[in-house]
Amino acid sequence: MILLITSLSNAHKCASALQESADEATVVASNAAEAIAQLQAQEFSAVVIDQLLLDSEPDGSEVIFKHLGGAVPVYVNFALAGLDRIRRELRSALNRRSREVLVARGEAEQALRHELNDKVTALLLSCEMALRVPDLPALAETKIRVVDDLAKEMRETLGVRG
Smallest Cα–Cα separation from 52: which of 75, 84, 26, 20? Predict the structure, then answer.
């Protein structure tokens, strides 16, 4: 969903154009207070902000920035930019956000994979050392081998070579 923050009279026309262009529902807020209420009520992928509104409500704009969450801000001077430029700016910002999300997700996955790999390695070493204990009861050995097999399966699932 997109939040359009502007006090211009043709805001709904612009919102319709943005909705069509981005294929996402677009909500209009005509001032900072409405924008903050919308940002607190729901999640947005982008927030298109009229720069004139930022200049006229500097205190409100600070609060808007604090409530953006994961939304990408798009600053536009509606007095100078036409609908085509606003659409391009929005598409560019949404594409940039998508790329950033993919990169962040990949980095998080890689970090988790490394963390799990370290734990699986420690588990396998612990099992190997436990199996070397002299006079290990048969039941304990069976249980340790089950844990060892599970750890090896996890290592395989993680794509780690032993």
Answer: 75
